[in-house]
Amino acid sequence: MSDFLIEAGAESLSVEAAQNGGPWTGQRLSAVLKKVLAWQRTLAAVEKRGRNPHVVAALLHVGGVPRGALKDESRSRRLLERLLTRLREQEAVLGVPEGSLDWDE
Description:
Elements: H1 2-12, H2 26-48, H3 53-61, H4 73-88, H5 91-94
Helix pairs in contact: 1-2, 2-3
């Protein structure tokens, strides 16, 4: 049902974003809208499982967790700092982010 509604709406709409090379309409707009909807469903599932969806989104914005990053203390600390920096950008909405790293040898 949602696919039908997205495709029907995308046919009659045109969306322009700054510096993207032209308006998005039809199939191009429909594909983007479907990806946005899938992203929203994913974040809702994350939240339903008791995880903070803002942290998940921030992890993706900083590039995710590279393979092996959590095996090395210095790399883990850099990842935590990047994540906290990203969350601090949304401090007005989310509150003050806190985090620490306790490393077990």
